[in-house]
Predict the 3D structure of the following.
Amino acid sequence: MISFDPSEDQKLMQQSAEQFAKVLLRPKMRELEKARGVPEDVRRQAHELGLGLVALPEAVGGAGLGMTTAVLLEEEIAWGDPAAAFGFGGPGAMGFALLELATTEQAKALLEPFTADGGHARFGAVAWGEKKSPEGRDGLATVATKEAAGWKLDGEKAYVTSADRADTFVVFAQVDPSKGWEGVGAFVVKKGTPGLTVKERKTTLGLDIASFGGLTLDGVKVTDGDRLAGGKDFLGSTIRFFAKQALLVAARAVGLSRAAFETTRDYCDARRAFGKPIGHFQAVAFTLADRAMDVEAARALVWRAAWAWDGGVGENEALKRTGWAVSFALEAAMRCGDDGVQLHGGSGFVRDYPVEKFMRDAKQLQLCALTAEQADQLAAAIELGRPVDPALVLPSPTSQNTFI
Amino acid sequence: MTIEFQLTARQQETREAIRGLAKNVIRPQSLSWDRNSGIPEEFLLKLTMLASSMGSGLALTQGVRGAGEDGPKDPTKKSTAHVNTSIASEEMAWGDAALPLCLPGPGLGGPPVRASGTTEQKERFFGIFKDYSNGLRWGAYALTEPGAGSDVAGIRTSCRKDGKHWVLNGRKCYITNGAKASWNVVFATIDPALGRAGHRAFVVEKGTPGFSVGRLEEKMGLRASETAELVFEECRVPEENLLGGEERYVSKEGFMTAMKTFDSTRPLVASMAIGIGRAAYEYARDFVKENYSLARHTPRYAQIAERLARTGRGLEAARAVTWRAAWLADEGKENAKEASICKAMAGQAAIRACIEAIEICGAEGTISEDHQLLEKWFRDIKVYDIFEGTGQIQRIVISKRLLTDLKSF
């Protein structure tokens, strides 16, 4: 039976997230942006709301509330500040990486510190991205070499969210260069391991609360037990990890779209020109109507994709719907940000108004986890009944790099 | 409740049944109906009998059955009528774009009679659809005029009281099933200067003196559906055919009768558009599967995949907002904005799908001997962004619900 009505529990959680966003995040949005991070007290409150581990199953220490609950909360938080969730403590993308790629024991042990007291002060990170593709083959340029006791990692990683904040990394590296994308593995690397250097934090167009950086791995030694040894189909699990992370980003895009739309609508109600509110001019009103449609449609697609993950309709169905939701929501957010600034006119361009931040954040969001193009390739492959091509779907210098 | 996208077992059964019918029975006849500008009555009768044997869940017997009923008064008693109808309409339109419009029953005339008619009127005008053994019957909805399309407040067809009759003069155009209808809901004005307050709605029965059918339109698409011009020359309509009775028109209700229809029919029309768009999308997808070499090194693969994904997600987005608008109606909640959103999105997404489908198939796609369905859908779909309110009108409706005190542009 079709229903667009969240459960009573979900509504309660949604309301507290909304309250948190309204009272704490939105008023502090510029302050946090200037500080380039989320202050400790705000992170603690976010931690108490249980954000970050909402969708992870209880078996690995998560709240077990599913993707549907997670996207509801992500939208509310992103409405307050689209960047905030990137600056909260927690495992970040490492949560889904461990869920999909690690054994239950590995995941549980690595996620435990994030649920404990003081979890808000910890960050996890995923080191996937690289600036250059390897010569003459598919896959990653960072290489893992088997040694008598464990593995040795060498390479340069880029586009890593929370690189300089994380105490634990999941590092992806080529285990078998002859196998291309099929030959990739993942390893847990702790901060401070000899040979691991965290590179300087980058300044970005948007979402600068997040700390985007890179790693240098120079003969970093890890044990066999540090290799993530979850399911057999490592590539399939990797795609699932990216898809789930991308769906959370899409939910943030919905929150951003709504925020940009609402502030712009209110501005068009109040701002007068030629003797009436500018919203009473058709060119303005129709633009607003189009963006309202974007918000509604993006949300419905994100909900349906999240429901597909929770509802047991099969992985392909969930991947396809995620592809559709991600590409639509990301593009919708960019349109909402762009038109938001446009309808504000010159005021939109100055930082007294929030909308220019929404526009910058929207562009940055489009380059997190999976891009719209990658998500489209994912959905289309499933629709065409073809294997998902990692060269087209996974972020890389040859498809498009993204921040993970 | 909880967020849920799983159809009920009954909805799934119904969908599968119509899907099978659409694929095996409707689609194979679609082209001949288009060429012959009509669907044989024997087929419509068979379909109607089949529908009633399958139960009302099929939502076929009256075309728009369910739509237009007032929302449930008791909030604990939820209906699924609008969602059911949306699901059924999409499947049927997938089979043939014109078929949902050709089905016997009150059609778009149903919702205003249901919403505004007196008990006596409902019995009288709906009663004729209970038994088709003496032939099929239709109802229709006549609002548009040569000089008043989107601006429905500007209608000029006049009405004046004369004894126990109302006398109508004027013309209506682009009326679906207007010629074959047993009755038309006709909107007229007692005085154009009064604007909406001057509007009156009548049920004008076939054979009423002074009422005649003008020309039947030759159209770009939906050629199997009848589109008629109606002429009223000193047409004498009995006073008991004034919809809702005199007291109904003390306020602005007249115009509201016209508009009320749309909140429930827009999701339905949106679903039909999605069905046609989906037909084109699936055709293109299968064409690509069969005809293209899809190795990764073919640069065209990624491009085609991107086009397909854009089309697919556009339709899915439209379906999601359409279901939401229908669900709101079932919940008895206000859905005017959402109904306009889904209509606007579905019209555009489906047109996009039909255009892209031809493009994806390349030159092959325009050859009408081999791909007649593709070119037919391309012709059929355009009007879905026009009738039941153009995309622009939907944006006006949406705008008024977004902005404070916006009365008109």
